[in-house]
Amino acid sequence: MYAVFKRELFSFLSSMVAYITIGIFLLVSGLLFWVFPDTSVLEYGYAELNGFFSLVPYLFMFLIPAITMRAFAEERREGTYELLVTRPIQLWQIIAAKYLSSLVLVLLALIPTIIYYYSISKLGFPEGNIDSGSVIGSYIGLFLLGAAFTAIGIFSSSLTKNQVIAFVICAALCAFAFLGFDYTSQVSLFKAIESPMMNLGINQHYTAISRGVLDTRDLIYFITFSALFLFLTKLMMGGKR
Amino acid sequence: MSISVKNLSRHYDKQKAVDSISFEARPGRILGFLGPNGAGKSTTMRMLTGYLEPTSGTAAIAGKNILTEAIAAKRQIGYLPENTPLYADMYVKEFLTFVGQTYGLSHLAARVDEVVKMVGLTPEQHKKIGMLSKGYRQRVGLAQAIIHNPEVLILDEPTSGLDPNQLVDIRLLIKSLGAAKTVVISTHIMQEVEAICDDIIIINKGKIVANDSLEGIKKTYGGLSLEDIFRKLTA
Predict the structure, then answer these.
(1) Which of A94, A129, B9, B105 is the least buried, fewest Cβ under 10 Å from its Cβ?
(2) pTM higher than 0.80, yes or no?
(3) Average pLDDT score, chain B
(4) Is A88–B86 a contact, with Cβ atoms under 8 angstroms apart?
């Protein structure tokens, strides 16, 4: 499994995929958070990162599909998938390797944004006046959100040989998983089950963790969510034989 | 027996791509797997290598059942899929190292150099796979199939699309590998069969229509050329 993981990661890093997607993610998040007046923290006037953390899930809806869309789609189109599954490796190991290598890339996109935290804490008055607990919680939340989206992406990629279709399906599923349950629960038909329905969505759990309170229920939610989609991937790829 | 296949079938909906075939292959002999396009050659090979799951029936590779001991069976197989799919973005040695790692080989660097030499990749060993010509790509395909020194080699049309010089080289290589291993190759070229195969299986519409040694089949059909025998059995 480690060999496949390493190959996946190297192929990200040796192609332009990693640099372009991460570069654009950082560019856009930087512009939105610092420059554009509507969302800029400088206009906002309070030294906190909440704006950034509510922004990133939306960027992830585009960043993560771009990273994961090739996972299985490309291999199946090129026929290299045949090469991979005839090795003495279990299917779940292949899926785990692809999942983890994509997740590392998401992490690589997040790490440079720590500089925002540093800048904001310097800008605070007095200097360093920032709620670090909430920031750490938010980063954990963001990572878990990224993990959930990545699982969706790997699953989407297993559905088709076409990378564009994989991208679109992933983006749509991510958007629905993040907000869809909140919106659907507002439909009058579902008024009776509004709260449990909202609880199914990622947004509820992400916001909860962002407050800086790491509840095991939220943690279990994210782990179950990712595991479910990886399991569905295994069903899909197993059935394709 | 290195390969023993029993009543292996693969159905797509109602179509029987492979219909209950049984055969055996012995070490030290090269088995030619012949048949028209769509007869079920690739499907059979894909089932043996664990890419496709059989609808029914079973097979054993080097005594390991492909269904119940899949991982152990895969360790004994070197497989060159049809059209030689390879990771075009990797360097030759990088790719072979990756393949070696999936088998957990030790002394990998030395082994990679060894197979590179064996398949005649030395002049191209520092290139990216995507840059190689078809002949060299085929050699990379063979190199990844033999790197773990498997007992059984399954090569799906290893010589398609090669020029006459490359053909001769690759055939020689397969022939030399066949001395110690069980080799199954599929091909459309009858001269190739005459040149390297010891045994022949002809498959048509998912069923085996001939299974004999090269001399045996010629004797049975008294004097007919292999090409005529093939046409007679599959047309």
Answers:
(1) A129
(2) yes
(3) 92
(4) no
